[in-house]
Amino acid sequence: MATPVLTSTDALRDAVSTPAALRRFLHGLPGVDQVGCEARVATLSSRSIKTTSKQWALDLAISMIDLTTLEGQDTLGKVRALCAKGRRPDPADPTCPPVAAICVYPDMVVTAKEGLDGSGVQVASVATAFPSGRATLDIKLQDTRAAVADGADEIDMVIDRGAFLSGSYQQVFDEIVAVKQACGRPGGDSAHLKVIMETGELATYDNVRRASWLSMLAGADFIKTSTGKVQPAATMPVTLIMLEAVRDFREATGRMVGVKPAGGISTAKDAIKYLVMVNETAGDDWLDPHWFRFGASRLLNDLLMQRTKMTTGRYSGPDYFTLD
Amino acid sequence: MSFEYAPAPESRAVVDLKSSYGLFVDGEFVDGNGHAFKSVSPATEEVLAEISEATEDDVDKAVAAARRAYTRTWSTMPGAERAKYLYRIARIIQERSRELAVLESLDNGKPIRESRDVDIPLVAAYFFYYAGWADKLEYAMPGSAPRGSVPLPLGVAGQVIPWNFPLLMLSWKIAPALAAGNTVVLKPAETTSLTALLFAEICQQADLPPGVVNIVTGAGETGRALVGHPDVDKVAFTGSTEVGKAIGRTVAGTRKSVTLELGGKAANIVFDDAPIDQAVEGIVNGIFFNQGHVCCAGSRLLVQESVYDDVLARLKRRMASLRVGDPLDKNTDVGAINSSEQLSRIRDLSQVGEAEGAERWSPPCELPDRGFWFAPTIFTGVTQAHRIAREEIFGPVLSILTFRTPAEAVEKANNTPYGLSAGVWTDKGSRILWMASQLRAGVVWANTFNRFDPTSPFGGYKESGYGREGGRHGLEAYLAK
Amino acid sequence: MVWRPTLQSESRLDVRKTYKLYVGGAFPRSESGRSYVVHDSRGRFLANAAAASRKDARDAVQAARKAFGGWSGATAYNRGQVLYRVAEVMEGRHDQFVEEVAASEGITRPRAQRSVSAAIDRLVWYAGWADKLAQVVGATNPVAGPYFDFSVPEPTGVVAVLAPQKSSLLGLVSVVAPVVVSGNTAVVASSRDRPLPAITLCEVLATSDVPGGVVNMLTGSLADTAPTLASHMDVNAIDLTGAAGDDEHATALEVAAVDNLKRVLRAPASEPDWTQSPGLDRMRRFLEMKTVWHPIGV
Questions:
Q1: For a 10 Å CB count at each end of chain C, is N or C smaller?
Q2: How far is B453 from chain C (nearest CA, A)?
């Protein structure tokens, strides 16, 4: 029998009591019909928004970006340049907001922290043997602790997809709990934990819903679609399911969890479609960088171009924006 | 600052509205001899145009033109040639799709998103589909005609269509009739004649031989004259069960063949293991699509008691995000009620629902001052005995009932004189097939609702009518047995 | 005391059959208690047949409705086997049918024999359709979207059949078999003047695995039963073949049938030639196409 999603906190406590209970809970979540889900996304994508709202939406989208570089060829110089870009995305326009965070590998955290000093832009670090997650738990925890110690404000961990797909939900759960602990700082506060589910490897929407609940139950502050290293990365239907999950989780527990689609969102038009979907699914409480992020690199310049078009009335070109 | 959707009106400029319209008889627009009547925009009550009313005499001329075209050209033309005319028409519909969509929304009150994304693309698809049948009729009725022979058309078809999907219903009627070699006289509903008249212009652009398609405008009297005309061989009607029965009595004892696509009171059944978010979308789509002006609307929601509270909460939350308003606004989900008469009927039955003790709820929803509007409404605490659970409301009003077991769901779903459609929501495959076999309805949507396709036969059991439209089966209705 | 040997009669007196109605698997007399005389073609007395009343018609509809769920829910293979079994049992009663058909229709024995054989063969032909019909008239529909969409024929429900007045067995079988083969149940009004083969057929049905109520037989005048059947709100379809030649009556029945939108097979101008190959049309008339949609996804 399906578990009503307007479920009680008692039921949720029970869900994490034993591996069998966890499995029962996750498998009792309502299924997702792929065709219906995609049809809903298509309808939402056909919304058009007011010009004034659009201006606001473009700025909001910029402020929600986790500007990302996660390449083997990353250098200190590249990261510094990205930080500069994140602080002032449009040097020609001081009204343009900064991005939400710069997202880098753990060894770049110190550099990013310096580059962003005083800007309010967060440093997000991937950790836990990103992107595959194929390392022993102690190495993943060490990876996390090192990033936090170097000053990361946010940790983007990956779940063990192999364990998830083989049904070892408890193992995935325990690992998230352990990483969450490793996010703790000496002062008692904690780096924000984003849990990357790598939805492209989970393959079905049912799995996306289960992984979302699993992550939230284990203490995720954010659920995130993808590493960006696997195709498909973020898609609208996957994000819709995650938005439904955070909405239902808040109904059940009162706790809000953020959502971060990452990878593959490259145009302002797409970003606005995502925001419409956030608005109509989770509600406007989530229309805030605290609760919704875009993991992206190319998206920023397109948002800037559209933003310029709206202020100047003419279409801009890529030569007028920095390539960092 | 919050998210505001733009009034994103589709431009009316693509439509060239004339101040008055005549009938389309024998390839030409002519004035009708009856009293002209006005077609208004249900969203604003603005008069869009004056329309000629066809009298008995006008209908007679149209039938005579159709008969001439039938005997002289259309029935003797090779099927492959007929096919090409229909392909041409399909293409012109695609070319002029924006114009047709805007005109349909203007005249009918339905949201432009729907006329643009559903109605008009389907209209073109129906013509494309049946075009291909015109030269393959020997395969249309297995087991009926001797091998190698081609089944014959019936002759002149008199067709009467409703106002809820004006051009789409026209395509369901005209495309198979013409493919099979019949000629037609079609009467659109009096509140929605405009796209049918634009279609007549498309027939001219396609060089369709005069008389093959004739459009007579008017109300019930015109329809009666058409259905009762002695030289009509085939009657096809979509509309209310009441009028369908009157037609049945008119044609009794004649040799006219008849197909009727009538009312419904479909059960949309949600089990506790349903894909819940899609089910809620399906409920919304089932009853609020086209303002609930849908004969196959899922107007009776049957929810398994174990998920009733959850489904109801989700449904209400979802309904609160429905956007009711200007049909030409691309963001509108629910448009205007087609006429003041229909609005009164919806209001009356809703009042009956309250008087009978059901609990009424609508989301907060600002309705425009002018025009015909009704907020999306649900009734809870409804039982099978309530009139709102038995009578077709034909508006955005959902009656919610509960059930405990699959057998009870089937019993309640079938407990109606109608039998047009039904919906089933469950993740269990074997249950879907069991339910589908038990429901006495012509269309069963499982984990979806309100889907239509030219290849897919559509039509009712019991008092929802007889005959099928769509697919090979839709062609049978226009061929001699 | 004087004893004498038992008398041996030279020619034995027949045990005559009482011809009754067939309703719900039983053979009741008419609830009205009325009967009428059935003559042969030369006007000689053949039997008293039960004159079915409106109430008999009502009972028969009830029986047919009761039987519908089981019969329509049986596998097509099973229905085919049952109908084939009917043909087998008819074959065993071949001579009896020949006698009754010859007497009723006033035809020679050889002609009656051909007619009975044709009736049995027709039943075999229809029996074979049970599990093939859906493949020929059903379809999977290639819709333009991610849906599996199929159309299957289902029986319409309870069908009233006004059997032909002239062809007492071949005609009867030719109108009843296409109705029941697909899972409908039937209330049959037999030929008024030639009802004996119909009742004998019911005896065959009663002894050949056809569930009670699947076929119900009313003998008597159409004037007594047909209006009730035509207006009955729990009858889903009506075959007016037996009203051929009486346009006024047929039209009145068609009008009455509109009340619940029965599917109507109109009366032909005159009784058809039942020896012709029937085709699928009669089966098609009493089918509903049901279309089922389901999304295709993972």
A1: N
A2: 6
Quick check: A218 and A181 in contact, CB under 8 A? no
- In angstroms, the CA C160 to CA C58 distance is 11
B&C contacts, CB < 8 Å: 111
Of A1, A33, A284, the CB nearest to B272: A1
Q: Is the ipTM of this complex over 0.85?
A: yes
- Domains for chain B: give ranges and CATH numbers: 12-262+461-476 (3.40.605.10), 267-446 (3.40.309.10)
Per the CB < 8 A criterion, the answer to whether B247 and B225 are in contact is no
Strand boundaries in chain A, DSSP class E: 65-68, 101-104, 122-126, 154-158, 192-196, 222-224, 258-260, 294-296
In b/e form, how buried is each residue of B52-77, taking b as 16+ CB within 10 angstroms? Answer: bbbbbebbbbbbbbbbbbbeebbbeb
The single residue of B53, B295, B296, B469 carrying the catalytic annotation is B295
Tokens of C218: 């009313």
Could you read off the pLDDT of B82-114 as tens digits, one per residue?
A: 999 999 999 999 999 999 999 999 999 999 999
Assigned CATH topology for domain C35-273+283-295:
Aldehyde Dehydrogenase; Chain A, domain 1 (3.40.605)
The CA distance from A186 to the nearest CA of chain C, in Å, is 46
Domains of chain A: 9-316 (3.20.20.70)
Cα–Cα distances in angstroms (integers) from residue C161 to residues B179, B466, C175, C283, in the given order = 34, 18, 7, 13
Cβ count within 10 A of residue A138: 9
**Exactly one of B190, B261, B463, B476 is catalytic; which is it?**
B261
Give Cα separations from A41 to A239, B269, B410, B439 (angstroms): 10, 23, 32, 30
pLDDT digit string, tens, across residues C170-220: 999 999 999 999 999 999 999 999 999 999 999 999 999 999 999 999 999
Q: Which residues of B touch C129 (CB under 8 A)?
A: none
Q: What residues in B contact C280, CB-CB < 8 Å?
A: 142-144
CB B138 within 8 A of CB B181: no
Task: Spell A183-197 as b/e; 16+ CB within 10 A means b.
Answer: beeeeeebbbbbbbb
- Global pTM value: 0.94
Residue whose tokens read 């290293």: A229
Q: For chains A and C, count residue pairs whose Cβ atoms are closer than 8 Å.
A: 16
Spell out the domain ranges in chain C: 35-273+283-295
Residues C217, B453: Cα–Cα separation, whole Å = 43
Q: Sheet harboring A192-196: ordered strands across? A: A258-260, A222-224, A192-196, A154-158, A122-126, A101-104, A65-68, A294-296
Residues 6+ apart with CB under 8 A from B471: B454, B455, B456, B457, C139, C141, C151
Model confidence at C240, in pLDDT bands (50, 70, 90)? very high
